[in-house]
């Protein structure tokens, strides 16, 4: 667990969002055809608990780390969430929504009223609506994983030289390696909203994310809650438009998540090894898939040449679990790399690898490569037209063109 953050805990503030604009550019994608102890909070459901006057009934907020996830490492290292909106001045003295709107208009003098309202809603959420004790969800585009943490103090305007790193909330990051594959499709759709800051509530999203924070897995919506939560989220409250109902969704990410879900449904367990072998064959390797048991840490042997004996010769380990794999798997693969006389190794870890495993691989860049679910899906799409007809029939994909939505700062 990360160390306690160096922030003092303040009293909570009352705790929005709007759709984003779209650009004229287009993108081609693959798609399927048509110092606190947080665990008492997780066990308490929506019951109101307080500690030193601070509400610990958590709402859940999506707070992005930049259009390309460029602020994620900085946010984790500095125990904060937020940033962006570089054109907007310090909001410390902006104690009303109108005051925030005035600063947004000053920062974006040419912006249309809808865009001003959009940015105002998001910054008002960061400034005021997000409460101490609420949960923050931060997707990390660079790793394909999701970080979750607890808000521990009120709004801060930092004096960082980078204007993209000033509007923040102090956060104690509790999980930083939750794979997207651990989240069910309907909740991933909510996390695909283009808004930088928005509340997660549709389909029992708040409760489910607290369960992810606790166990690393999304249990799905509770039967008695999911429908009512979805209906409630369709009715915006005064002055706010809930992000869950926003039409501005990252279509490319949504399509990829659907493909990812379909792949693991069809190719779970030993079948995923055959998919990996098919992809490697499409890339010019000759492959042999080992038996399901007694493989000695190797699921696929791959090599160049007519018999697969030419370099580069690969040993491949495939793990279809949704949770990140650890050091033991990496060490076993390192041993197989040496004992089989291979040149390189490929670890296909559907749920990614944890921090300890990543640290072990720092000096193995030219010997061991890791593919997570996103990397494997990239390889499938890259080689799709060269895959066997039978596999393409099981995984029917087509290319489409869509407008690229403009994300907020």
UniProtKB/TrEMBL annotation:
Span of domain Restriction endonuclease type IV Mrr: 268-379
Biased composition (Polar residues): 14-26
UniProt keywords, alphabetically: Endonuclease, Hydrolase, Nuclease
Any GO molecular function: restriction endodeoxyribonuclease activity
InterPro entries documented for this protein: Restrct_endonuc-II-like, Restrct_endonuc_IV_Mrr, tRNA_endonuc-like_dom_sf, Type_IV_Methyl-Rstrct_Enzyme
Region (Disordered): 1-26
GO biological process, any: DNA restriction-modification system
Pfam family, one: Mrr_cat
Family matches, as SUPFAM superfamilies: Restriction endonuclease-like
PANTHER family (alphabetical): MRR RESTRICTION SYSTEM PROTEIN (PTHR30015), TYPE IV METHYL-DIRECTED RESTRICTION ENZYME ECOKMRR (PTHR30015:SF7)
UniProt protein name: Restriction endonuclease
